[in-house]
């Protein structure tokens, strides 16, 4: 059985679709990447994808498209992306089976 690179909960897909619908210039989708930062080493990045790079991994989730930077693929394989509204906080969360640890504030992780 093949594991989807990234899966989106219904809540996350709805939020991504809403964000893409409000964006200027009709982006192709949402770009997911990884950057070296934080106290634990890696953090997720998200931005509107205006173009598809030749080495992007593309994930279609219902009505939304995620473009995964090639350098991030090894870190996000099997991840579930969710959107949570909890009290005064609303945010995307990532349940990543590759993580070996996460900082106390939750903004960075290591594999």
Secondary structure topology:
Elements: E1 6-8, H1 10-22, E2 29-37, E3 41-49, E4 57-61, E5 64-68, H2 73-76, E6 79-86, E7 89-95, E8 101-102, E9 109-110
Parallel strand pairs: 1-6, 2-5
Antiparallel strand pairs: 2-3, 4-5, 6-7, 8-9
What's the structural domain tally? 1
* Unreliable runs: none
CATH-defined fold name: Hypothetical Protein Aq_1857, Chain: A
**What can be said about the biggest beta sheet?**
4 strands, mixed
Task: Count all strands and give the number.
Answer: 9
Compute the average pLDDT: 84
**Contiguous helical run count:** 2
Structure description:
With 111 residues, this protein is of the alpha/beta class. The chain has a single domain (6-99), classed as Hypothetical Protein Aq_1857, Chain: A (Sandwich). The protein contains 2 helices and 9 strands, in the order βαββββαββββ. The chain has helices at 10-22, 73-76, and strands spanning 6-8, 29-37, 41-49, 57-61, 64-68, 79-86, 89-95, 101-102, 109-110. Strands 3-2-5-4 form a 4-stranded mixed β-sheet. A 3-stranded mixed β-sheet has the order 1-6-7. A two-stranded antiparallel ribbon has the order 8-9. The longest helix is centred in the N-terminal third of the chain and has 13 residues, at 10-22.
Task: Give me a quick take on this structure.
The protein has about 110 residues and is of the alpha/beta class. It has helices at about 10-20, 75, and strands at about 5-10, 30-35, 40-50, 55-60, 65-70, 80-85, 90-95, 100, 110. The chain is built from 2 helices and 9 strands; from the N terminus they run βαββββαββββ.
């Amino acid at each position: 059985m093949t594991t989807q690179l990234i899966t989106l909960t219904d809540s996350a897909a709805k939020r991504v679709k809403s964000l893409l619908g409000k964006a200027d210039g009709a982006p192709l989708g949402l770009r997911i990447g990884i950057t070296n930062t934080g106290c634990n080493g890696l953090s997720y990045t998200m931005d509107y994808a205006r173009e598809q790079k030749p080495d992007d991994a593309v994930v279609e989730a219902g009505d939304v498209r995620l473009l995964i930077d090639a350098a991030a693929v090894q870190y996000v394989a099997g991840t579930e992306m969710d959107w949570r509204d909890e009290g005064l906080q609303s945010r995307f969360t990532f349940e990543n089976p590759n993580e070996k640890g996460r900082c106390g504030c939750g903004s960075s992780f290591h594999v």
